Amino acid sequence: MDANGQRVWMLAGERDWAVSSPPTVRWDGSRRTLRLAGRRTLPEAVATPNPAAVAHARLGQPRAALDAFGGRAFWHPGAGTVRASHPDLTGDVPLFTPPDGQAPDDLCAGQDGVLYMAVAGRVILRDPRDRWEVPPLAAADLAAWRLAPRAGGGVWVLDRANRRLGRVRGLPLPRRPEPDWDPGTWRPDPEDPDPPRLTRLFDLELAAGEEPVALAASPGGRLALLTWAADGAARLRLLREEGGRLGFGPALEPRRGDDRALAFPWSLAWLSEERLAVLVPGLAGEAPAYDLAAGTVLQPAGDLYPLRDHDGGPFLNGPAPVPYYPAGGGRSVPLRRLSLPAFPAAGSAAGAGPCDSGRAGTEWHRLYLEAAIPPGCGVRVRLAANDQAGGPPADWYEHRFGRVPGEPGRIPRGAWVPFPSESPFHPGLLPCPPERDRAGLFTALIQRAGKRVTALTGRYLWVEVELLGDGRTTPEVAALRAWGSRFSYADRYLPELYREEALGPERDDPAPATPADFLERFLASFEGILTPLEDRIAASYLLTDPRTVPEDALEWLGSWIGMSFEPGLPAERRRALLRAAPELYRWRGTLRGLRQALDVSTGGGVSRGDVVVLEEFRLRRTFATILGVDLTNQADPLLGGLSVSGNSIVGDTLFLGEENGGEFLALFGADLPKTPAEERAVQLFFERLAHRVAILVHQEVEPQDLGLIRRVAGAEAPAHVEVRVFTASSPFLVGAASLVGVDTYLAPEPAPQPVAVGRSVLGLRDFLLGPASLDPRLTGGDPFAGSPPVADVGGDRQVEPGHSFVLDASRSHAFGGRRIVRYHWTLVESS
Questions:
Q1: Which of 284, 389, 628, 667 gives a 20 to 30 Å CA spacing to 450?
Q2: How many whole angstroms separate alpha carbon 19 and alpha carbon 246?
């Protein structure tokens, strides 16, 4: 409601618009705007007598796997082997021969660099780095048919016959010498905490006659299931988790009129996190693409994705950022859209329903449009009003924004407004910065052009929007708002002789406007300027509220109370600091105040446990025996002086304490005899720990926040308190002396980090990482080209202690015409 008591009705979401079929406009969920739909010109489909039979035949082809280097692994029926090739190398090499000559149903390169193969219902794992071997994975209640790479490693498994979804997760330990561990040595049981395993997750909830045909995973981890209805129409479901339970969501279907272009699709690939491409029988020149941003339907993307030299095979299967399709000559070609956009010249949408003012005879006042209108484009808004909700009247009235062809006449045109929104201090809904006459807020007085009285009245306001483009660009509408009932300056502030005298049917006569109507519209020009100013004055209190003050005024508002912000601090945290200012000032100079300031500045780091503020005397450990030692450690305060043992530290003076004592004071009880030297030592000990605060920062905190924590701590702590900031040593370790939630923390297993020169320690945490190549020739070897070499040093022998012996490896041999040119000896164990 504005300063004059007018109310507003807004269309600003997907559900607010009804799009015609076939759609010429679409709702862009990523930008949250209404825009022209891409003009899709599909090539003529080849006449296919039985598209269902063609699609079923294509489903029998296993997909080729694609690695990060552009190499692929594919099934060669003639050779009966899985082979590998790379575009930079000539020919191909064998990788794997399935048992009993069984052809794989699918091949997949996982994000963990492993080649997964679905063969006879089982999943076979092959490591291109040749670090391990594992027998085929099988599950009694799951028959693997299609695979899709899973984010973080492993694959999703589709069981077509039983309509189930499963998963492969875990990897075996690399091959290594296995020593005979001493019985007293602690070892994990089992040795491999995450072995590879195939498990069934859930049954697919499909309609009667619905058939699963394809599974695809996006680089970001989204999983899509493609199915056919009984008539071959496409259905798409996305994997989601609700209440800790995995399952596919409701089926997404194409709009009516688009389903003919999507009959019996047999291969699926992700173009982005919101767009997919499919392969359809009889359509060899292009892969139709569909958007998921609409949320409830499969909407044509409208862009062209040509298939050049496509050999008819399915999309390749792997974690590549863009999909690849097989082409002639054994090539793999990325699927790209044509760079030149194409849009229809015009497209229209209507409001999903009328705007109901709730009162008959409402006089609609002003129209506001948040839109981006590029040069050569325009927006035509048609309005109609009546007092019946059954449907719109026959007469519609046009309002123009931007470049709209047609006779100008008396048709109202929108004017650009230098505010992002007519609502005071609102940032607007348009996802681009304002630009004069091009983008931002536009307004027009609602009128009936060509009528004697131009006021549009009626309880229900009906809206139609037409977007006009130049074929290469499109306007975008983020929101449309209508205000009413009209606040008339003439009726409110002028004598009655200036009021409208035309009544009844004569108001609708197609004639020049009456003088009173002209005066009404003339005064509305001033009202359109004054009302927003009055609204801003009435809403000026919002400038003193941290939640609503504009971002560029946060510093100004903070200066009222003497608060300054760290450079680079996000606006959300600045607002939080302003909201928390009364509590921060109340507790400033205390431990509680320091924690509050750090919590707000880090976006909840203290509340989450990422940042722990602790008085240093609490970092000490309690021991059954303490032998005159300073428990602080300058190198690492988290160790608390533990260098050898947690039970006793040998020093000059012995103090005995209770075995289960929880505080250091128990070890220096008043009843214990103390010499003056001991009393001075105790007092000195306390003094060294007093007035010290340690801020422990877990390693998950961003580096830029670590510097922020140091600055905030220095500003908020009292002058007599020494504050030190440390990064926590490690997550919680069982069996190590630690304070859970203080200097150690519970955290998920960290992802492997790559080795960095000058930072990493060999054998500690970091790893030599790199994507695996399916073609072994790319890494300088060919381990799967034939049988591996055999090492032979003769039979088993026993040698008496103290006697020398000779090992002869001359009987070792290679295969495939190769020869051994170098021998490497490794001493596995000695005693």
A1: 389
A2: 33
